[in-house]
């Protein structure tokens, strides 16, 4: 399916941001050897809109086929759970949420976040498109609907008498192919004095730190603050605050309200970030041209590191089987001849092969058996948590390596 117009403003898309070649869907893990024969690859090419500056991918696979049975469970990251718990504590206090409030989370995954509202006796509803993931949330006692969110779902919930005092979407906005339908749905579901908070990777950080692995088919869009502000404004929503977060290599948490009903004043952080992005060139199409060359440098440096390690007889394994790692490995053409295997705490991934690279995914305990020289941390945004978990590997002199923006040893 060729993308010729911007998915938000319908302007013609003519400027390529980066072309990462052919790649399988990042979460399409292979369960057996036969699956290799049927593996499908799609172009992984991002464009930037010259009107609204939204960076976006072509849509090659329907969301139903990507998210219907999903392998990502948020609760397997301890640091992400702590991030969620801290957020819940803060917003309950800031917006005076209680037993008479209603909190709705879109793409609520396995209940990793809503469980903390439940503990605080705040009524919740999760909306999650993946049946297998939603089942885990329900088992925790978290009410969860299995559906894709948009205008239709919002109207159904309104007919049932639901309006959200707090509407949450963490790392979902990038996954939405029909942005206008999605944001309009949020506007419809939001109570008159309600607040929306959303988190997503920040394009400025992606660009500055050459985070090429953040780009994969499940992420249809990549947002600067100036782009997301335009999208929300088109649906009667004002961004009144923004926070810059360290999560996922650098994210934004935006706060939105109805433009004509909300009462929260506009924070100085909104004005500051908007100005910084404009000054840095994110409202200038030519600014985006430099990214592809930097990506090629990142690829060459990683390949050189792995090839040098192989020549020296060093054993290299991976830690993690994240979607971002699959983008990186396939863009670089890395297979099991350079990375022997990778490990992951998620039992739903263990015993499978990474898509494209066909690197085996094993249980973390395997590292203690084979005692590799280097452990390449593919979810490098969680490097502190992972290094702590694998501290035992230092006993034989193993070193931890992160690949982005270039390979480097981490303590």
What is this structure's SSE topology?
Elements: E1 15-23, E2 42-48, E3 55-57, H1 63-67, H2 78-94, E4 103-106, H3 114-119, E5 124-127, H4 131-139, E6 144-145, H5 151-159, E7 164-170, H6 179-189, E8 190-201, H7 203-208, E9 221-222, H8 225-233, E10 237-245, E11 251-258, H9 268-280, H10 291-311, E12 316-319, H11 323-332, E13 342-343, E14 361-362, H12 366-370, E15 374-377, H13 383-389, E16 399-402, E17 408-410
Question: Which descriptors would you attach to this protein?
Answer:
single chain; 411 residues; alpha/beta; Rossmann fold; 2 domains; 7-stranded mixed beta sheet; 6-stranded mixed beta sheet; 13 helices
Order of helices and strands: EEEHHEHEHEHEHEHEHEEHHEHEEHEHEE
State the major sheet. Answer: 7 strands, mixed
SS elements, strand count: 17
The CATH topology of the largest domain is what? Rossmann fold
CATH first level of the largest domain: Alpha Beta
- For the biggest β-sheet, the strand order reads 6-5-4-7-8-11-10
What would you call the shape?
A: globular
Number of helices: 13
The percent range for helix content is 25-40%
Q: Averaged pLDDT, please?
A: 93
CATH architecture of the largest domain: 3-Layer(aba) Sandwich
Question: Distance between the terminal alpha carbons, to the nearest Å?
Answer: 44 Å
Q: In percent, how much strand structure appears in the residues?
A: 15-25%
CATH superfamily of the largest domain: Vaccinia Virus protein VP39
